[in-house]
Specification:
Layout lengths: L4 H7 L9 E14 L9 E10 L9 E2 L2 E3 L9 H10 L5 E8 L10 E9 L13 E10 L3 E7 L4 E12 L4 E9 L6 H15 L14 E2 H12 L5 H8 L3 E8 L7 E6 L5
Parallel strand pairs: 1-6
Antiparallel strand pairs: 1-2, 1-4, 2-3, 2-7, 5-6, 7-8, 8-9, 9-10, 11-13, 12-13
Length: 273
């Protein structure tokens, strides 16, 4: 037995323990608007994910989320900010911790544990130019009780993967996710992507998190489309108005053009997130 902490530290052999590495992966989400050829129709919105094409092994030339290793003297919260700046040239983005992924074989190089983050942004506010190996992919997903098919499309390439769902806790409606099919994304990033989408779906009903993806002024119809894109379902107007009643406030500004009647613009009413 050691008499004190100093004696313990003097005898401590750090080499007696197996090593593992820490990384971080960032799921950066936004909402894209695709203009319709018929100006009388509303523009269609898509949830979008930023991916980076790898230029080195493992998984060379495959797409992945922005990510990288935690420096030994770096604070965990600073790591995703540095990586976003390095791999995408983006700065000052809203970030919150998502989950920790630690499957034994998630990285073929070594044992790697990743702390993932979800980041939200309004793409129209971005001033920085993306690096050439980064691209926004629009997201479409089809969900059943047992699995979900996710399709990512950037107009040039299409990526598909399927996630299996197993109910873990019936009382809390929590699921365990597994990758059933994936041939285009590196590492276990399909799990990170779907976990982040699920987190966003769960939080937009009781928090104000979605306004990180909105411009300063917006029409309620545009905000409703964003909710519907994330939730992947149509919302009844009265129910939606009740959902966001205490989150927005009316302004004196009006949206015109696009072949529609002028729409009153609203802004986010600051409150607890």
């Amino acid at each position: 037995m050691y008499k004190n902490e100093e004696e313990f530290l003097a005898a401590y052999d750090s080499n007696a323990f197996e090593k593992l590495s820490m990384t971080t992966d960032i799921l950066l989400l936004s909402v894209s608007t695709k203009a319709e050829e018929n100006y009388r129709k509303s523009s269609k919105k898509y949830m979008s994910i930023l991916l980076v094409k790898r230029d080195d092994y493992p998984f060379k030339d495959k797409w992945c989320l922005p990510g990288g290793f935690l420096d030994i003297h770096e604070d965990l919260e600073d790591c995703p900010k540095r990586i976003l700046a390095r791999e995408t040239n983006l700065h000052n983005i809203y970030l919150e911790q998502l989950y920790t992924f630690g499957s034994i074989n998630r990285d073929p190089r070594m044992r790697v544990v990743s702390t993932s983050y979800i980041a939200l942004v309004d793409k129209n506010k971005l001033q920085e130019k993306l690096h050439k190996n980064a691209s926004w992919f629009n997201v479409t997903y089809f969900e059943s009780e047992k699995d979900v098919l996710v399709i990512l499309d950037n107009g040039k390439e299409q990526i598909k993967f399927t996630i299996g769902k197993t109910l873990k806790e019936q009382t809390t409606d929590r699921y365990k996710f597994t990758v059933l099919e994936n041939d285009s994304l590196a590492f276990d990033h399909p799990l990170v992507i779907w976990s982040g989408i699920e987190r966003l779906k769960n939080k937009i009903g009781y928090t104000h998190i979605v306004f990180n993806m909105m411009p300063k002024y917006f029409a309620l119809g545009d905000l409703q489309q964003v909710y519907e894109v994330i939730l992947n379902k149509k919302l009844l107007d009265p129910a939606f108005r009740r959902m966001i009643a205490d989150k927005v406030e009316k302004t004196e500004y009006v949206k015109t053009g696009e072949g529609h009647r002028p729409s009153v613009l609203y802004k986010y009413k600051k409150g607890k997130n």
